[in-house]
Amino acid sequence: EPEVTQTPSHQVTQMGQEVILRCVPISNHLYFYWYRQILGQKVEFLVSFYNNEISEKSEIFDDQFSVERPDGSNFTLKIRSTKLEDSAMYFCASSESSPAPGGYFGPGTRLTVT
Amino acid sequence: KQEVTQIPAALSVPEGENLVLNCSFTDSAIYNLQWFRQDPGKGLTSLLLIQSSQREQTSGRLNASLDKSSGRSTLYIAASQPGDSATYLCAVRLDTGNQFYFGTGTSLTVIP
């Protein structure tokens, strides 16, 4: 069964550094998403991406964040100048259409900012 | 803004019991509702998806119902097993927009 993959599974970085989280969505999907989950809190929407541009973003997704689809398979989330409060699990998701019949979520990248 | 609440926050049952997890949402203009399972430190596994026009969906020992007008969904797990121990999340998508709104989850422990 096709699945969304994410790398790395765990990323440790120092405050102020830039990180790039990578995702490979399901190959025939057209819509891509990033969510995050701070430990003990709800899963929160960050951004959705379609046709090489952001289609929707939350108030969390400020200028510190950016997304890109650099090639035909990868979807990346860049976090600039990381802060302690950016420590969270980051989930990538993809869907065939929007509104989608359902979202397929990746296993997540645990980001730890020290 | 859509608010999604799940009750109870935690539940512990002996193996073999049937159980119900509850999800409520404030904005009934939803497109669909999805139940997920999350194991500790892991990703989200989709269990059941209910479109707004549907009343329920079944998969094996799982049955999810949706009452859109009252803003409620339930996940029924029959004959629970220790392997069912996990956190269960419900998420709703509105008629407008792309994002899922997640609940805080119910942490289920099934005791052998």
Question: Features of this protein?
Answer:
heterodimer; A: seven-stranded mixed beta sheet; B: 112 residues; mainly beta; six-stranded mixed beta sheet; 0% helix; globular
Describe the structure.
The complex is a heterodimer of chains A (114) and B (112). Chain A has no helices and 11 strands. Chain A has 114 residues and is an all-beta fold. In chain A, the strands form 2 sheets. In chain A, strands 2, 4, 5, 6, 9, 10 and 11 form a 7-stranded mixed sheet that branches. In chain A, strands 1-3-8-7 form a 4-stranded antiparallel sheet, with no helix packed on it. The radius of gyration of chain A is 13 Å and the shape is globular. Chain A starts with a strand and ends with a strand. In chain A, 37% of the residues are buried. The model of chain A has no long low-confidence stretch (mean pLDDT 91). By secondary structure, chain B is mainly β. Chain B is built from no helices and 11 strands. In chain B, strands 2, 4, 5, 9, 10 and 11 form a 6-stranded mixed sheet that branches. In chain B, strands 1-3-8-7-6 form a 5-stranded antiparallel sheet, with no helix packed on it. In chain B, a hairpin with a 5-residue loop joins strand 4 and strand 5. The termini of chain B are far apart. The A-B interface holds A 31, 33, 35, 41-45, 48, 55-56, 58, 89, 91, 98-108, 110 and B 31-32, 34, 36, 41-46, 49, 51, 89, 91, 93, 95, 97-105.
